[in-house]
Amino acid sequence: MQKEGAKKDSRIAVSRMKSRVLASSFRSILIMVVIFISIVLLSILVSAKSESTFFKKSPGALDVQVTFLNQDPDPVEPGERVKLRWKVENKGAGALNDVSVSVSEEGPLHLTTKEQKIKEVGSLDSRQIGKDSYAVEWEFDVDEQAVEGDYEVDFRYGMGDASVKLENFTVHVKSRDTVVLLDKVEVIPERTQAGQEARVHVTIANLADSAVDDVRVSVDLKDLPFATVGSAGEKAIKKLLAGESQEIIFQLVVDGTAPSKVHRIPLKVTYANREGKKYETQTNFGLIVDNPPQFIINVDETKVYQSKKKGNVVLSFSNIGKSDINFVVLTLLPSPAYTILSPPTSYLGNLESDDYETAAFDVFVEEGKTKDVKLMVQTTFKDSYNEEYVIEQEIPVAVYSPGEIQRYGLGAEQSNWGVWILIIAILAVVYYKKKGEIHKFIKKVLHG
Predict the structure, then answer these.
(1) Left (φ > 0), alpha (ψ -120 to 50) or beta: where does 308 sit?
(2) Where are the alpha helices (DSSP H) in 48-165?
(3) DSSP assignment letter at 303
(4) Helix (H, G, I), strand (E, B) or coil at 233
(5) Are the C-beta atoms of 359 and 342 separated by less than 8 Å?
(6) Which residues neighbour 317 within 8 Å (Cβ) at sequence distance 6 or greater?
C-alpha cells in the first residue's frame, strides 16, 4: 500500500511539472508573437512616412519617389476646374511592374466625368527619374458653394495587390474677391429739359459667391442743377445674395436754369462682405439736358416803305431759349416780290441764351406791292449737341401807298431838302432886310 501511494504522488508531481513547463512555453510564444506584431506595425509606420516627397524601401532595394508638382490654377475659385499634377520616379536598381496610382475625392473636390480614380502606370525602369519620370494628372471640379480654404486629396500608389497611402496633398480654394457691380444705369426719359423730372434706375449686381450686407447707393448732386424728389440721395439694400441683382430708383428734378449738355453725376456704392470688410465703388453716369433751341426774328429797322423803291431792312435774331445756338447764318431767299441788292447771306456766329444779333439787307420792292412784302428768310444753326437745323420762315415788311406815307410821316428823309430851303430863305430875308435891299431879294427870287 505504501508503494502504491508513493507511485501516485510521483505521478502527480510529474503532471504538475509538465503543466508548469507548458505554461511557461505558452507565455514565451505569446511574448514572441506580441514582439513580432509590434515590429511589423512599427515597420509599416516607418515605411508609410507622410511627406509630399516619399521614399519607399522594399525588397530588392526598390526606391519609389512621388512628388506633387502643382495645381492649376492656384488658388482655384469655387465653380472652376483645377488640374493636379504629380510625378512618379523609380530610384531603385530594379524595374517595377504593374504600377498604378489613385486619388480620392474629398470635400468640394469632385473628379470630372472623364476621369478615373485609378490610373495604370505600367512598368517603371530602374533609375527612371528626372525628365524621364512618369507624369500623372487629374482634373477636379470645385463645388460652386465651396468655402474658401485648403482641402486635401488622398494619393496612393501600388504594385499588384499592395498599395501605399501617402500624405494627403493640399488644394487651395479661394473665393473670388467680393465684387458688387453697377450693372446698369437708365435715365427715363433719356433726354430731359430744364424744369422737368427724370427717373434714374440703378441696377446693382453681386458677382461674388457669397452674400453682401448693407449695400448703400448714393448720388452726389453738389454744385449740379438737380435735386432729389420724394427721397434722399441715398438708398439702402439690407442684403444682396450671391448672384442676385436689385434695382433702385432716384427721382430727380432738373433746375430751371440747367444748360443743355451731358451732366456727369457721381454715384457711390458701399457694402460689406460676410466677414464685415468694407468696400466702396465710385463711378458716374450722364444725364442729358436737352433744351430745344428757341429764337425769334424781327424787323429791327426798315427804310422800305413803298414799291418801286430801294430800301434797307435790318433783321434781328434773338435767342429766347435756355440753350446756346451756334453758327447762326441768316439767308434772304429770292422772291418775285422783291429783288435782293446786297449779299443775301449774313453770318451771326454763336448766341448764348438771351443774346441777339442783327443782319442788314438792301432790297428793291417790285411794282404793284401796296401791302406787306413777305421776306423769305432761311436760318441755319447748330444746337449744343452739334445737331444742325435749317428753318425757313416769312418775315413781313409793311409797304404803304404815297398817301399813307404822307399821313404817317414816313419817308421823312425824302423831304429834308424842303426844310433846308425854307431855312435858307428865312435867313436870306433877314439878311437883306437889314441892308434895306429886301425888294432886290424878292425880285431876284421871282425873276431868277
Answers:
(1) left
(2) none
(3) -
(4) coil
(5) no
(6) 295, 296, 297, 328, 330, 348, 351, 356, 357, 358, 359, 379
Provide the residue type at 382 as one letter: K
Reading phi first (left if > 0) and then psi (alpha if -120 to 50, else beta), residue 292 is in beta
Burial 206-239 (b: 16+ CB within 10 A, else e): bebbbebeebebbbebeebbbeeeeeeeebebee
pLDDT score recorded for residue 49: 40
Delineate the domains of the chain, giving CATH numbers in brackets: 54-173 (2.60.40.10), 180-289 (2.60.40.10), 295-408 (2.60.40.10)
C-alpha cell at 425: 430863305
Strand (E) positions, 255-294?
Answer: 261-272, 278-289
Query: Which grid coordinates are listed for 233?
Result: 440721395
- List Cβ neighbours of 442 (8 Å cut-off, separation of 6 or more): none
Indicate the DSSP class of residue 434: H
- pTM to 2 decimals? 0.51
pLDDT digits (tens, 9 = 90+) for 295-335: 999 999 888 777 788 889 999 999 999 889 999 999 999 99
Using alpha carbons only, give the angle 48, 54, 58 rounded to the nearest 5 degrees: 60
The answer to whether the CB of 125 falls within 8 A of the CB of 90 is: yes
Task: Please give the DSSP secondary-structure letter assigned to residue 74.
Answer: S
Contact (Cβ atoms closer than 8 angstroms) between residue 54 and residue 167: yes
